[in-house]
Amino acid sequence: MTEQSQHSKDREQTSGVDVNVDALALLFDALDKNDAGAGAAALADLHAADAADVIEQLPSDQLKQLAKTIPSVFSGEVLSELSDDLLEDVVEDLDAKTVADAIGELESDDAVQVVEDLDDDFRAEVLDEVDPKSRVALEHSLSFNEDSVGRLMQREFIALPKFFTAKQAVNAIREMPKEQLPEIFYEIYVVDPSYRPIGKIALSALLRAENQVKLKDLMTDLQVLVTQETDKEDAAYLFEKYDLPSSPVTDDFGRLVGMLTMDDMVEVMQDEHTEDLLALAGVSEAGVGDRVLDVVLGRAPWLLVNLATAILASMVISIFEGSMEKVIALAVLMPIVASMGGNAATQGLTVTVRALAMREITAVNARRIIWRETLAGFVHGLLFAIIMAIIVLIWFQSLTLAMVIASAMVVNHIVAGSAGVLVPLGLKRLNADPAVASSVFVTTVTDVVGFFVFLGLAALVLSN
Amino acid sequence: MTEQSQHSKDREQTSGVDVNVDALALLFDALDKNDAGAGAAALADLHAADAADVIEQLPSDQLKQLAKTIPSVFSGEVLSELSDDLLEDVVEDLDAKTVADAIGELESDDAVQVVEDLDDDFRAEVLDEVDPKSRVALEHSLSFNEDSVGRLMQREFIALPKFFTAKQAVNAIREMPKEQLPEIFYEIYVVDPSYRPIGKIALSALLRAENQVKLKDLMTDLQVLVTQETDKEDAAYLFEKYDLPSSPVTDDFGRLVGMLTMDDMVEVMQDEHTEDLLALAGVSEAGVGDRVLDVVLGRAPWLLVNLATAILASMVISIFEGSMEKVIALAVLMPIVASMGGNAATQGLTVTVRALAMREITAVNARRIIWRETLAGFVHGLLFAIIMAIIVLIWFQSLTLAMVIASAMVVNHIVAGSAGVLVPLGLKRLNADPAVASSVFVTTVTDVVGFFVFLGLAALVLSN
Q1: Would you say residue A104 lies in a domain?
Q2: Which of residues 178-217 of B touch A (CB under 8 A)?
Q3: Which of A75, A88, A189, B44 sits most deeply, having the most CB atoms within 10 A of its CB?
């Protein structure tokens, strides 16, 4: 960022990749001294996104204090930039009037984002304070499923008939009253007489068009049609795939009712990534402002499940207490079999979950991928079985033990390979999230199989 | 998608969330029969993004066959939509002239994406076939670090002086020759006399502006300044944070040299997510078209590292062979201590890696987060120690064993909590990728500590 500083010192202080640490320090200080003026001043000159970033750094006690003592920092823009979990916390400590006023500044899509996270009673209070027209629009948006496009779209867009000329279109846009106009738009939509979108025109194309060209000759294909009921993650995927800057949204009758824009879709993508990543690790929710209690509660459920599966694995081990007492090396070596299987399975699982998220696995290639993963498991199993057999031969000077661990590793790697791909595909087929619970499930399988096969084989060989 | 089918049957067949399975089946069939005409026809009516999706489903043998027998399907647009790993494979089997022609259809940023993945010799051949002007531009782009914005920007953009009126600006845009103009643009940039960007104007604002308004009165703040050397992930983060549709790119002297657009940044974000997710699971590279050998080689390195760490853990266990022989229950219970620690550490690690990717951890809050994670580890440790102590009391009727496992679990959870946050933060501070290697490192720590503390405590107690 050295080049920037040469001609834009001011800007450098207010925006950038990293959180504005100076503003954060000032805010901390102000909250410490209970100085509302200084607190407001710390955030005053920041872009809303930067102010939200700073606020997100606060631990929840200070966040509460900020909401109670300096509610004015929570403008509509700042609220809409806050992460969802933080928003819930903050808004509880603001009064309904403050929230309603903040929402009033926002476009319809951003307003819904703020309102949807409120608890029911408080939401009703806030809606009472909002002007009647916006209230009806908000209530309509809220009537859609929270994962649907209906929640995310804005009701401001530009739709013109196909027989308009470019000149007429530009004039129509110029004369449109400001409150009907989207704050920013990249495309206009061309509609048929029953208000169904039939094409789109990039503003860059409209701007360059000859005055007399008809919109129907300027418009391009819509590529995709998104309805109010479309899943938001599907919509985000379509935006990414077709590089869309915006998309019209239709109702059940195909009539144009709203517009989605890329910036909202990017947020959906980010949320999806975070969900997948956390789900794979068994974390239900996480935010940087979480307290210890949030952390403990957000992760305890999966740790409890893991405790149960670990005990299950121990019960498998205890079946073979007799063998282990005879050959203590079994106890020494058994974690290796389980650990290798668990890791291999997690690798395959992660690749599969990612491929599912990217819509890369289809009915046509699923069988090939299952077969590929199973075969790769077999090859990994062979490879590491050979290495491990040599190590065991040197370490324990027992060919029997070497053969036992090698066989167990081959079996467990095959199981790991197929479980890593079958579990997420199975969950997907059951319409469950392929990332949730699959880690625990898959590693339970590899632990149990690993211990059982290794100790079981040893028991068989030893009893002869 | 039922609503769509009512008025757009054709479109439904050519685009959507899922891969076009019909086209894929036709393509498979055509390749099977070695029928080039049918193969080309299978993809002919598809959007480039859909054609690329279909092609990405092919296993690598068929992909090779496609490249050799029907090179015409690899238009510039299709090539630029293919994933990077696939692109490398495909291009090897095309000849330089085909690739050069395909590139000729593309804008400068997309052309670079294709060329940068070629190996050096073949790239030189391709560049020889490209027209001299494009070649110079491509070579200049390639001179930038592959992670920098210089690689991703396009050289087509619109820059106008601040004293222009809106009318003059629109006329200038209309009269610009097509080859200088970006295919699509959402904003124009305002430059000072030394060609430094000083503001931007959304096309929607320009379109609505009065004819005589000066650009300097229309323009808004740039929010961020991106240079050719800016890291592409930093740029993507800025696009997301400030909801930017595009951004000017400057050289070292602050002069406007290019433009970044949102669609390229979305791709950077997706790549970053995939990298983080795969790195956390210890997978170096993965694509849906990978062969068994790719899978084996892409995952073997981390499995090998895991084997080494598992052996290390076994060596720790073997120190306590004597204690285990006396009390075989130790062997039965020890995996529980290690497994719980490993899972808790992975949870904390994943949350930390995600927070780092979202730029949420700063110098100001790092200490609080380290403390929070350690404390949460302690609470989890206490909680599960109590549960486990009760279970061991019932199972083995030994208060000593119950106390030993409870103490070991508390210690290992504290270690897990702090390791989960300290390891990625440490890697970040060393300018390494916090996701790579941290999983293996963290679980090694919890395995070794888990076994050592549990068995060590047991040995101490048993020797008394």
Answers
A1: yes
A2: 181-182, 184-186, 196, 202-204, 206-208
A3: A189
